[in-house]
């Protein structure tokens, strides 16, 4: 397992959930929800710089069958832009059911409406990042596909 903080990034149309790992890569914790749009890449770059992140893991939304969805290309483009903006490695990782898992985890909480939506994005980023950390620990290799800054993976 490589040492270093990783950032998990759950990209949505309106919000981006951000999570981080501890330096030893054992556990993921929520950081914040960034509004999608102007300044989003700069804010994530700032977080990556502040935490001296080793890499960023971006969720790739695919259907349950593994096919592309309407959001798949958006996530690929965002990941490439993020790689260019941060100058750090970015990996795309299948995120099937992370938002559903986050909603289930928060179902018993007292948060409702808008405040719950922002937290759901962070929890989805935590679930995504924890999956990446666990997979790397089990296999010995980083999880997900490395993204080129020009959009390829």
Sheet bearing the most strands, described? 6 strands, mixed
CATH H level, superfamily name: YqgF/RNase H-like domain
Tell me, what is the CATH class? Alpha Beta
Radius of gyration, CA atoms, in whole angstroms: 14 Å
Number of strands: 6
Helix content estimate:
40-55%
Task: Outline the low-pLDDT stretches.
Answer: none
Key features of this structure:
alpha/beta, globular, Nucleotidyltransferase, domain 5, 6 strands, 153 residues, 6-stranded mixed β-sheet, single chain
Description:
The chain is α/β, with parallel strands linked by helices and 153 residues long. It has one domain (6-138): YqgF/RNase H-like domain (Nucleotidyltransferase, domain 5). Helix content is 41%, strand content 22%. The protein has helices spanning 40-51, 72-86, 98-106, 113-139, and strands at 6-11, 15-21, 28-35, 55-60, 90-94, 145-146. A 6-stranded mixed β-sheet has the order 3-2-1-4-5-6, with helices on both faces. A hairpin with a 3-residue loop joins strand 1 (6-11) and strand 2 (15-21). It starts with 5 loop residues before the first strand and ends in a 7-residue tail after the last strand.
């Amino acid at each position: 397992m490589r040492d270093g903080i990783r950032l998990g990034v759950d990209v949505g149309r309106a919000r981006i959930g951000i999570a981080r790992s501890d330096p030893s890569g054992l556990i993921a914790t929520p950081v914040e929800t960034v509004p999608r749009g102007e300044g989003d890449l700069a804010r994530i770059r700032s977080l990556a710089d502040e935490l001296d992140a080793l890499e960023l893991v971006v969720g790739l939304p695919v259907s349950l069958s593994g096919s592309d969805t309407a959001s798949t290309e958006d996530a690929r483009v965002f990941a490439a832009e993020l790689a260019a903006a941060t100058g750090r490695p970015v990996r795309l990782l299948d995120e099937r059911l992370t938002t559903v898992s986050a909603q289930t985890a928060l179902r018993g909480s007292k948060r409702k409406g808008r405040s719950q939506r922002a937290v759901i994005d962070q929890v989805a980023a935590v679930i995504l990042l924890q999956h990446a950390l666990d997979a790397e620990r089990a296999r010995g290799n980083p999880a997900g596909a490395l993204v080129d800054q020009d959009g390829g993976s």
